[in-house]
Amino acid sequence: MANFLRIRRGRIGPSDVGLPTGPGARRTPGLRREELAALAGVSVDYYVRIEQGRETAPSDAVLSALARVLRLTADEHAHLLGLADQVAGRTPRRRPADPRPASPGLRLLLESVRPSPAYVLDDVNDVLAANPEGLALMPGLGDWPAAQRNTIRYTFLHATARTLFADWGRVARNSVAHLHTAELTAPERTAALVDELSSASGEFAALWRRHEVWVKRAGETAFRHPSLGPITLTNEVLTPAGDGQRILIYQAPPGTAEHDALVLLAMTTESTRTP
Question: According to the UniProt record, where is the region Disordered (predicted)?
């Protein structure tokens, strides 16, 4: 929590909150501690103790005031509250997720949405299951052992990813921001993945230090697929209640060129499966 607050304080300038900037440049970027404390309505000493990790039980009201001044998004605010629970040793607001295989029902759902590429992911984006189109949409993912398949690992470590994603930088940034949410629900597995990717990718390490937090929801992703060419798909995220697993589906409206491309992708996967 202390590190998160320090990073976010450094990103808010005086002008962002209506304070005069004064003459000359500041030695360090962002708000001063006393400025943040005053705007949040707490004493400087109390805020310093929070940021230094010496105050382990700030109230939700104080944290919400800090979130307001720091311009945190709803996802980032929830993340801050979760970090506070962790520091205080309280029961987390989200139940920690134990790794478990995808349920038969979710596997059946992957088949039912074909030819839309679909995946069952856990908190850290391990691929628990995928339909054939899902593996074909990300070339090379299926070549990895099942235990190694992870969409964030793929984004940063697989050579194909940089050309596959038309806006690789946005995909990479969003992936890391989403992984921060798993610090609360799967801390040990998150730490292991972060250590691995930080050692292998300086870009991942730099993005991780930004401590942006973002929960992946519906949107669009543009691909430059080696077989399909340029294709933009919408993505939907379905979250079954309480088990830490979610379903990611890429899709396109019937009758569009993108949907025709997915049908072609399905035909390709069937031809490779047929003896």
Answer: 85-105
Give dist(CA 273, CA 178) in Å, integer: 34
Residue 4's closest CA among 85, 83, 94? 83
Q: Please state, in angstroms and rounded to a whole number, the distance separating the CA atoms of residues 168 and 156.
A: 9
For the chain, how many structural domains are there in total? Answer: 2
100 sits in the region (left: phi over 0; alpha: psi -120 to 50; else beta) called beta
Structure tokens at 108: 């059946």
Residue 178, in any domain of the structure:
yes
Do residues 2 and 50 lie in contact, with contact meaning Cβ atoms separated by under 8 Å?
A: yes
How does pLDDT run across 18-76, given as a tens digit for each residue? 777 666 667 777 888 888 888 888 899 989 999 888 887 888 888 888 988 888 887 78
Reduced to 3 states (helix: H, G, I; strand: E, B; else coil), residue 1 is coil
How far, in whole angstroms, is CA 238 from its chain's centroid?
15
pLDDT in tens, 138-175: 999 999 989 899 999 999 999 999 999 999 999 999 99
Q: What range defines the domain where residue 15 resides? A: 2-88
Phi, psi of 53 (to 5 degrees): 80, 15
| Rounded Cα distance, 150 and 203, in Å | 17
Residue 93 lies in a domain: no
How many C-beta atoms surround the C-beta of residue 237 within 10 A?
14
Q: What is the pTM of this model?
A: 0.73
Of the candidates 36, 57, 88, which is a domain's last residue?
88
Distance CA 41, CA 29 (A): 22
Kindly state whether residues 143 and 189 are assigned to the same domain: yes
Residues 44, 145 within the same domain: no
